C-alpha cells in the first residue's frame, strides 16, 4: 500500500517519454496542476498536437536517448515499447525524481490516482493498483457528488473563524 501525497507541481519540469494515448491521458491528468511538461517522441497523438500548438506542452520530436530524463522532477514512461520503458526506469532509478513506468507498477515510485475535483477540493482515489474499475467508479461517484450544490451548503461554514 502506498501513502497518499499531494505534490506541488507548479513550474516543475515533467518529462513524458512517448506521444500516444497513455501519454495523452497522463498529461491531461497533470496539466491542471501547473507542471512544465515536455514530451519526447518522434510523433504525437492528435490530442497532444493540439496541446503543443496551444503552447500547453513542449515537444522534442525525437526518439528517447539516455540522458533525456536528467532534468526531470517527474518522468513518465508512456510508450508501448518495453525496452524503452526499461531504459527510462534504469535512468530515473539513479536520479532523485518521481517516475511512473506505464507498463510496470513495480518500477514506478508513484502511480496515478483517480482524481475528483471542484474548486479547491481535490480528492485522490486508489485501489492500490489492484482494481482500476473500482477506483474509477468511486472517482466518478465522488466527482458527481462534488458537482452538486449539496456539499457546498453542508460545508459552507467550514474553515470560518
Shape: globular
Assembly of the depicted chains: single chain
Number of domains: 2
User: First CA to last CA: what distance?
Assistant: 36 Å
Would you identify the CATH H-level superfamily of the largest domain?
A: NAD(P)-binding Rossmann-like Domain
**Proportion of β residues?**
15-25%
Main beta-sheet strand count, sense and barrel state: 5 strands, parallel
Query: By helix and strand content, what is the structural category?
Result: alpha/beta
* Helical segment count: 5
Uncertain spans:
none
Would you tell me the overall average pLDDT? 92
Write down the secondary-structure element order: EHEHEEHEEEHH
* Radius of gyration (Å): 17 Å
By CATH, the topology of the largest domain is Rossmann fold
Number of strands: 7
CATH top-level class of the largest domain:
Alpha Beta
Question: What strand order characterises the main sheet?
Answer: 3-2-1-4-5
CATH architecture of the largest domain: 3-Layer(aba) Sandwich
Helix content: 25-40%
Structure summary:
The protein has helices at residues 21-30, 46-53, 82-93, 132-147, 150-154, and strands at 13-17, 36-40, 58-60, 74-77, 98-101, 114-118, 121-125.
Keywords:
single chain, 161 residues, Rossmann fold, two-stranded antiparallel ribbon, 32% helix
Amino acid at each position: 500500500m502506498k501513502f497518499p501525497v499531494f505534490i506541488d507541481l507548479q513550474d516543475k519540469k515533467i518529462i513524458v517519454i512517448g506521444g500516444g494515448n497513455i501519454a495523452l491521458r497522463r498529461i491531461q491528468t497533470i496539466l491542471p496542476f501547473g507542471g512544465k511538461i515536455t514530451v519526447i517522441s518522434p510523433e504525437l497523438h492528435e490530442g497532444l498536437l493540439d496541446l503543443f500548438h496551444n503552447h500547453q506542452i513542449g515537444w522534442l520530436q525525437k526518439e528517447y536517448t539516455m540522458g533525456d530524463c536528467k532534468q526531470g522532477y517527474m518522468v513518465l514512461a508512456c510508450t508501448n515499447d518495453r525496452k524503452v520503458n526499461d531504459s527510462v526506469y534504469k535512468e530515473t532509478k539513479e536520479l532523485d525524481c518521481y517516475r511512473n513506468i506505464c507498463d510496470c507498477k513495480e518500477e514506478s515510485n508513484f502511480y496515478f490516482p483517480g482524481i475528483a475535483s471542484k474548486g479547491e477540493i481535490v480528492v485522490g482515489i486508489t485501489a492500490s493498483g489492484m482494481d482500476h474499475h473500482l477506483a474509477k467508479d468511486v472517482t466518478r461517484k465522488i466527482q458527481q457528488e462534488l458537482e452538486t450544490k449539496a456539499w457546498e451548503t453542508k460545508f459552507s461554514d467550514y474553515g470560518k473563524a
